Structures are given as C-alpha cells and as structure tokens.
Amino acid sequence: MDRKKIKKKQTTLSDIATTVGVASMTVSRVINRHGYVSEETREKVMRVAKEMNYRRNGLARNLKRQRTETIGLVLGDISNPYSTELARAVRETASTRGYNLFICISEHSAKEDIAAFESLANHGIDGIIVATRSNKAGDEYLRGIVESNIPVVVIGRDFRHETVDYVSADNLRGGFEATQHLIDLGHERIGFIGATLSGGASLKRLQGYLNALGEHNISVDERLITGRKEAITDVPGYSTEKIGFEGMKRLLSLPNRPTAVFARNDFTAIGAMSAIKEASLRIPEDVAIVGFDDIPLAIHTSPSLTTIRQPMRLQGQIAAEMLLQKIESEEKSPREERILNCELIIRGSTVLSKH
Amino acid sequence: MDRKKIKKKQTTLSDIATTVGVASMTVSRVINRHGYVSEETREKVMRVAKEMNYRRNGLARNLKRQRTETIGLVLGDISNPYSTELARAVRETASTRGYNLFICISEHSAKEDIAAFESLANHGIDGIIVATRSNKAGDEYLRGIVESNIPVVVIGRDFRHETVDYVSADNLRGGFEATQHLIDLGHERIGFIGATLSGGASLKRLQGYLNALGEHNISVDERLITGRKEAITDVPGYSTEKIGFEGMKRLLSLPNRPTAVFARNDFTAIGAMSAIKEASLRIPEDVAIVGFDDIPLAIHTSPSLTTIRQPMRLQGQIAAEMLLQKIESEEKSPREERILNCELIIRGSTVLSKH
DNA sequence: CAAAATTATGTTAACGATAACTTAATTAAC
DNA sequence: GTTAATTAAGTTATCGTTAACATAATTTTG
C-alpha cells in the first residue's frame, strides 16, 4: 500500500518563524499577546499562523511554564447524580477562575483509582479533587501524590493528611436526623440497609443511626442492620438498588420485621421499596423508609421518597475554591475542613400525603 | 511571614542520576523497564527513586514521545444518563486498550465546547470523541482540530468531515417507531414536544415522527408540534423537563387537544406527564405518551414510561474503538459511519398494564 | 541634545525525558 | 582463540515553547 499516512507533523512556532522570516520568540510574542511586536509583524505572523493551521503545543508550553491551568476530578461513579452535580459545580467554579477541568472515572476500582491519579499527575495537572471511595491501595498512591507537592482536596471520603483539605456533608448528623424522624413518627424497630457493623461503623450515616437509637434508649438489634461489607467492589452505579432490594428482603423475612428502614442512599432505598412492594406491603403504613442524597429520582418514586438532602453543588464549589486557593497561594496554609449541613426532606415514604 | 512555601520542585531523572552516580539515561531505563541495566544498578536506582518520591513528568515524556496514550471525551451535559453511560463505555474500552480517558463538560455552551476542545488538543491528547450538540462556533473550532490531524469521532450529532467517523442511534427510525406505536394504538391526533418545524426538522426524531404520519396519511398539524427552537442554550440537564411541562400545557390548551404525544426525550416526556396530571387527565386513557432514551428513571415514573431505548453503551464502545483504530493505524482509512438500532419499550404510559 | 525610556526584535538556555548512537566490557559461538 | 553477540552503561540531540537577557532602533524627557 502506498497510501500510508504520513503523520503530518503539527506546525510549530519555528515553522511559522521561518516562513515569516523572524525569530520564533517573536512568533511566541504574537501568539501570547505579550511583549512588544510591531503591528506589521503581528499581522503577518497571524496570517501565516492561520494559514498553516497552527496549534500551540501545550505539552511544551506547560513543561516550560510549570503549570497547566487545569485541575483534575476523580469520581468513583459517574452514574450517580451526586457525582454529576459535584462535577458540574467543580467545573463551573474552575472555569470562572480560568481553569480547565479533566474528569476521570474509576468505577470504584482501586486499580482505576490509581490509574486516574497517575494519569492526572503525569499530565502535570495543577491540583486534584478526589471524590472516590477510600481504599487502601488507592490511598497509598494518593499519599505519594500529596507528598510530591501536588495540591489535593478530598470530598466526602476518608483521607487524613496534614496538607489535604476536606469537604463533606454532615453524614453523621444526617444519619441521626433520618433516624430521629422515624423515631418521632413512633417507630421503634428501625432497620438500616447498606452497611454492616463489622467494619466498626466506619460509615458515618450508620453511626448517626446508632447515635439516634442510643439517645432514645432504643437498643440496637444487629439483625436489623444489613448490607454488604464496606469494601471496594466492581459494582457500579445503579446496582446499589440491588443491595437495597436484597437487604430489604432479608429484613422482611425476620420473625419480627422492622416497621421502618433507613437506607444509606436513595438508590438503596429505591431497591428496598421494590422489595416492600413485591411483598405486597404498603409504604409507609407497613414499612416507612428514608433514603439519603435526594437524587432527582426521589421525587418521582411512588410514594415519593423521604430523604436527607445533601448540598451537592456546594460541596463541589467549596472543594474547587479550596483547591484553587492552595494552587495559587504562596503560603502553606493549614489543613482546612468543611462539613456542610444536610436537610431532611419529608415525603410520602414516611408520612401519608395529606390529600 | 517566613513560612513561605518554597515550591519544592519535583524530583527529576537527573536528580536521581546524580544521587546514584549514573547517567540519567540509565535511570530512565530503570524507570521504563526497557533496555539493559544491571540488577545492582536497578535496585539502587529504584531505592533512591522511592526515597526521593520520584514521579515521572508526563509533559516532558509525552513531548518527546509525541503521544500521550490518553483520549478525550467532550460531553454537553453530564446530568443525562445518556451521557454517563456513554462515558462509562468509552472509559472501559479505552482502559482495556491501555488508554486513559479525560472527560470534559461543556454544559451546552459553544464557548465551553471550544474551551474543552482547545484544552484537550493542547494537552496533546491522542484523539477526541465529541458528543456535544452541534453549534456553529464549536464546529468551526472542531474543524480546525480535525485539520491539524487530531483523530476525532463524533457521536449522535452533526459534523461532516471526510476523516471524522460518526456513531449514532437511528433517531430517524426511532422517531418513526415511537409514532407508529401510537398510530397502531389508534391515535390520530399525535403531538410532538421538544422541537419546532422552523428549523426544517433538522432533528431526526421529529423527522421520523413526520414520516410515520405521512405513511399513514395523517396530515401534519403544525400546532401539535411544539418546543423551543433548536439552539444552544444555557439550559442544563433536567430543565428539559420544563420544556416538556410547558409544551404539554400548550398542547392541552388547544381546542382539539392531542390524544397522544411523542416527546423528544424522556426528561421532556416526564415534564409532559406532570402537566397532564396537573390537568387531572389520565395517562394513557386521556393522553398517551412516548419518550426517547429509556433512562433508568423511565421505569419508575407512574405510570412507567413507554420509550425508545437507544444503545448507549454500544455507541460509546464503538466510538472508542473507531477512535483507537484511527490513532493506531498507519493507513488513512475512509470515513466510517455506524447507525445503531433502537428498540421500542412498551410500558404503562401508552398501554394500560394488564393486572 | 544627551540621558532615559520605550519599542521591536534576536539569542541562549532551559523545562524533563528519551530515541538514537556510541563505547566498553563480558559472554557465547564456531 | 578469534569473531560475533550480548550486556551495561554513557553521550548527544531534540521534542516545542518560553523566561531571561541582550541588542538596536526609535521616541521621550528635562
């Protein structure tokens, strides 16, 4: 075959320089609108640059300038409205401040977490926001990144480091309020779906649940707490519905089944609702249910889902601001931590609608 | 303040080389596991690299190697399940083939489209998949990118170029089948929400609707076609629900209102359903409704939504494969076009459930 | 009108990594 | 035991851009 693709090289500054008959530095000045260039030269250079379809090589530029004006965001799961709202807020804040955003997805895999961190760090990104689930291998790698002086901010996940800022919803309080709401409605046998106690209640939402029970002297029944062990799995997005479905079935099969359930997130709650309906029980009369996150779907389920709304956009915005601050400041600032309030949204899955 | 942050520079190959007492090329060989190095030297280098927390500078590396093993994906809207499934499939395919994926969001803004293209191109990305809505300024910029020999594949959007591959769902046929389904159910006054005829039915789904009506000799009533003009707006994600809601209200206020409606996508359909319910009409008895996309929410609405399912993952996978093929092939291959079949999913919004 | 400031351009040396080449010592082959 | 192959390094140039400095012409200032 003689129609091999001759990898036509990109036009470079010096290509233009040669054509116009100036030094490449002059061309650089024109391209960057910076420094003295005569109007005549500028026009000539611009014309030739356009003709030759010049595109600046960012690799070389960033290598020389030692910054990229780009930040990275690593998400565990892009199917979750929580993640997407986060991403949108981060992008918006970054964009306003003149930064580009590259998003990487890790699909809750430690290996992909590392691949994402590495890839971003390698590209000389100015800073990274991490919103994946914590896991050992990933965290270890992340620590290396932090220690090589790349600014990092984490959202809603464990990771302690003296220079890493932290943003999160108040999951502890949210979990507490969800449970409190059910207690206020008179429930005493309240289940939890989405985690087990074996991990020592590392999940803040579960801890909030336990705290609420404790405060009202309701004894904890471990059989009412169900869910797969807290660990990185290859389960993406919507499959948490399955955890909710199976967890609820387990709870319903108990000799003394709960009258209310708090699910660790809305997808889990929706799965649980399916199980309840399948058992021909009514929501909320037979089993009341509270979720967490207030995803857009929550208002469209039947009955609509009572849930804890967390400020997704705000978390993204604050994280981005923190990161940019770190990137741009000369001073080394102390670790900052922002924990944002959640809000109980009461809907039909706990309280019969009035009409 | 004297605790100014001394921007500790990253460790470089030659830092390690100096410490160990070898040439930086030797260190490079160790790091890249490529070329001859004695076991003794390798171990020493590895140890020092670890101690000094070495991280390879990808900018320099990629600049020299002229490739990054990274591809970019530009999405108009990340809140849409269509986009997220696409992204996941693209990531998976890319990852399997050893490529990283950077995702950019443009929020349906021409300016941000351009910013995303530019940023990706500048970073020397090996190729770009574009799944934004077409718009003049953005397309013009994209054309420049294509002409500077960066491989590009577009998904489900207009963009004609002899070297740009194209993947899409068969929107024309999908629109036809959605309408056909309603006709089969006996409907004759069928509305369309989400676009107007003024743009000359550039929207394939609308064209499919028109074709189906034509085939059954149902005359087109322009008052039954409603929606905002096809254009880039700053309206993100879920707000298409609003278009559906308002469009439906307009249709319901007609003297001779439609008995069925085809909405350009599921969010629009859901908005329309709200309007129908608000008017105290029944779905599907008074107004039947069909959406498009089969988003996860579609099964959870009440009644559940009849819709056209498009193969989101498949589109992403094929696009990624096409792009990687372009990137890796030496030969210049002719433009390829893949149009994928859609599937009608019949649910409660058009047919009363049987129980 | 000399000194200072401004404008316009060129030169040089990185940024950090690596491909391509060279040198030299070992080991294998015939 | 001489030639060829393998192993283990080092040297040089370059990827494309830009910061920093240097030069020279022109303009402004006092």
Polypeptide structure, described:
The structure is a homodimer of 355-residue chains. Chain A folds into three domains: 13-56, Orthogonal Bundle (434 Repressor (Amino-terminal Domain)), CATH 1.10.260; 67-169 and 312-339, Rossmann fold (3-Layer(aba) Sandwich), CATH 3.40.50.2300; 171-310, 3-Layer(aba) Sandwich (Rossmann fold), CATH 3.40.50.2300. The N and C termini of chain A lie far apart (76 Å). Chain A is elongated, with a radius of gyration of 26 Å. Chain A has a six-stranded parallel sheet, sandwiched between helices. The first copy, chain A, has a six-stranded mixed sheet with strand order 7-6-8-9-10-12, sandwiched between helices. In chain A, helix 7 (136-147) links the parallel strand 3 (127-131) and strand 4 (152-155). The first copy, chain A, has helices at 13-20, 24-32, 39-51, 58-65, 81-96, 110-122, 136-147, 171-184, 204-215, 240-252, 266-278, 312-328; strands at 70-75, 100-105, 127-131, 152-155, 165-169, 190-193, 225-226, 260-263, 288-293, 306-309, 337-340, 343-345. Chain A has twelve helices and twelve strands. Chain A has 355 residues and is of the alpha/beta class. The interface between A and B is large, with 63 and 63 residues. Chain B binds a DNA duplex (30 and 30 nucleotides) through residues 10, 12-14, 22-26, 28-29, 31-32, 35-38, 41, 56-66.
